[in-house]
Amino acid sequence: RGGAFGELARQKKAEKAGGGGVGGDEGTAAAAAAPRAATAVKSAPKGSKGAFGDLMAMGRRAIDPSAPGAALPDGRIPLSVHTVTPTLPVPANIPRPSYADTGKPPAWNDSYQLAKTQAHKDRMRAAGALAAKVRDAAGAMVKPGVTTDEIDRFVHQMIIDAGAYPSPLNYGNFPKSVCTSVNECICHGIPDMRPLVDGDIVNIDVTVYLDGVHGDTSFTFYCGDVSDEARDLVRTTRRALEEAIHTIKPGSKLSEIGRRIQQVADEKKYGVVENYVGHGVGETFHSGPTVFHMANSQPGVIEKDMTFTVEPMLTLTGRIAERTWPDKWTVVTADAGITAQFEHTLLVTDDGVEILTPYTWEC
User: Fold this and answer.
1) Ramachandran angles phi, psi of 185, nearest 5°
2) Which of 64, 259, 287, 308 is most buried, most CB within 10 Å of its CB?
3) Between the CA of residue 11 and those of 4, 7, 274, 336, what are the distances in Å?
4) Burial of 202: CB neighbours in 10 Å, binned 0-12, 13-18, 19+
5) What is the DSSP-derived secondary structure letter of residue 235?
6) For residue range 286-331, what is the model confidence (pLDDT) as tens digits?
7) pTM for this one?
8) Is the dihedral of CA 84, 86, 87, 90 positive or negative?
9) What CA–CA distance (Å, rounded) separates 8 from 29?
């Protein structure tokens, strides 16, 4: 899900903050987001030494993820550019979305996606179930020494073996079949040849296109022995998603989702990422509504039969400034603080919501 989708979310926030008639929490958050996202750290001369040199090296890495430097204060080595292997082929007989061959996503549509017929609901359930099955099988691979490229190959094969298309592949020219976001990567991490390290956390974001509809889900997995603070972040992010889902029913406000997530995050003084959002999903990969995860005054209400995602991303340090790598996809925290995400595809029922991508893992 491309940088273009994140840019759309930023534009929508800016429009609402700039006299579009929507004020309150969302307008304040949108106005505040720009200076945070624009924060930059100037690099020092290459010869800097000692503690000051380490600080400047961290600054260089915040701007250039491939810049060398000492380990972070928690002992982690910051993410850097690794080899990305060639895109994997999809058999010609597998039905594919419109962008699969062109790389061009369809034009954004603000309209909700509704599964009104039983047949449509069943297709959404099947796509969600497959996405969840692939997500959990991929998660079982997470251990020290495994590369995210290996996870991508596994995910790709499992999806095409099921007669489905891996939705991220060539969406806006994304080169892989799954997003794998490690440690400080907020989202859209491109699988590569970096081996996972003991103590990493990794979000695996799977979307499948099956029988004409997309099912979209993610889960943040532990790699080996993970720190207590990382576990607390992961567990709290999952709880934020689950408590937000409890607010959803026909007639409820879209803004209730972000309000509840913000409340859960504030309990731990975690940051809530603003520029990447939930969205409608179904026959189209991304559509309205734009679901903000922070406290906001977004207009709009939940409708019966809506299919959409909620996918909060929380940051350990409480700061949400971000950097996008030169690959135009990989989004990392500017301060290299770790981040976690969870995502479900949802179907709104008569009096609540059905989770189409249920979890089987504990965290």
Assistant:
1) -75, 115
2) 308
3) 10, 6, 12, 25
4) buried
5) H
6) 999 999 999 999 999 999 999 999 999 999 999 999 999 999 999 9
7) 0.84
8) negative
9) 16
